[in-house]
Amino acid sequence: MSVNISLLCVFKYSFLQNILIPIGISFYTLQQIAYLVDVHQGLMPPPPFLNYLFSVTFFPTVVSGPITSVRSLVKQIPAFHIEHLQKGIFLFVIGLSKKILIAELFAKWANEGFRSPTLLPLLAAWKTTLSYTFQVYFDFSGYSDMAIGVALMMGLTIPVNFNSPFKAKNVIDFWSRWHMTLTQFINAYIFTPIVRAMPSITFQTTMVATFTAMFLAGVWHGSNINFAYYGAIHGFALIVNHIRKKKKMKMKEGWAIFWTVNFVNAAFVLFRASSPSHALKILQGLIGFNGVVIPKIGLKSVGMLSQYNFSMGTYLKPNDYLFLVGLLAVWFLIYRTQTSAQLLKKFSPTPKMAFTLSVIFTFCLFGLNQITEFIYFNF
Question: Which of the following is catalytic: 40, 81, 179, 221?
Answer without folding.
Answer: 221
